[in-house]
Amino acid sequence: MRDRTIYLSLVMTAFFWGANFNLGAWVVQTLDPLSAAAWRFLLAGVVMAVYVLFREKVDWSGMRRHAWPLLAMAFVGVFGFNVTFFYGLQSTSAVNGALIMTLNPTLTVVLTALVMGDTISWRQILGLGLSLLGVVVVVTRGSWSTLAQHLHFGSGDALILLGNLCWALYSVIGKRWVSGLTPAQTTAGTMLMGAVLMVTAALSANGGALGLPSAGTAWALVAMALFGTVLAYLWWNQGVRRIGPAHTAVFFDLVPVSAMLIAIMLGESVSLGQWLGAAMVISGVMFSSGALDRVLRPAPQCPVI
Asked: Which of 85, 113, 135, 251 could pair covalently with 163 via S-S, beta carbons 3.0-4.6 A apart?
């Protein structure tokens, strides 16, 4: 039951991050990326700090003991990932960005094997391959000519790839070097540190002033902070702690599928190829994570009394 809860929370995390694509694309039309990221993580960091203070007893000694790993996670997973992602999308196509992002589970599996000595199973390899192929079908709408037309490598692609590496490092660092802290405390610590880095960068880039969002942009940032940041990061860290970074990372491939489902709700048409690709992604995630075995496993029979 606990594993099923973890899997459900990771699916919801992917959905929230898929929503972030739509909200973020709208936000950066009226606010610069650094200011938008700074406001998002300032709000998220404050909410997480309040949550930890009222829900848990803060482990100050544990925070001090893991200060450097938490700072590293904040730098790569909050600051690094968001800066490279937002600026990368300014100079690359959506097709390229989505395809490159699907390399994250593979990067995480490889880093986990190198840093923690975990073995890479044939199940993970097949599941990751199926998920990657499914995402290719989703983002190209099943048209290989679209893939051939848009697939090229430039500076924006390099930034997206670097962002993928940052997120993979975030998961591996948390699993390898942070122990004894709850996922909530780990999330709060990295968010607050990341918010400080974000605000510092935004102030430096904007002449000492932080851009102010309009009313509509502010509500979008609130949604991104509460759902796409607080809950998403918290659930992601719980997944890393419970089932490991390699198995957790495969759920990252559900993000493009989530973005597609949100596009449907907004009235965008979806092709048969995209539905097929979405099914391939979901199947690959379930197969690689072992969730498919749990779904298909027969229920235990009650003894005859």
From this structure: 85
Both tokens of 201, joined, read: 């960068």
Output phi, psi for 151, to 5 deg: -80, 105
Phi, psi of 31 (to 5 degrees): -145, 140
| Rounded Cα–Cα distance for residues 146 and 67 (Å) | 46
Total length of the chain: 305
Quickly count: other Cβ atoms within 10 Å of residue 148's Cβ: 10
Q: Return the H-helix or E-strand segment holding 13.
A: helix 2-27
> In angstroms, what CA-CA distances link 44 with 56, 99, 163, 167?
17, 28, 20, 18
3-state SS assignment for residue 255:
helix
Render pLDDT for 70-107 as a digit per residue (tens, 0 to 9): 999 999 999 998 888 778 777 765 555 666 676 777 77
Stretches where the chain sits below pLDDT 50 are 294-305
Residue 57, burial from CB neighbour count under 10 angstroms (0-12, 13-18, 19+): exposed
The CA–CA distances, whole Å, from 29 to 140, 147, 224 equal 25, 27, 15
Taking the CA atoms of 48, 103, 159 and 36 in sequence, report the sign of the dihedral they define.
Answer: negative
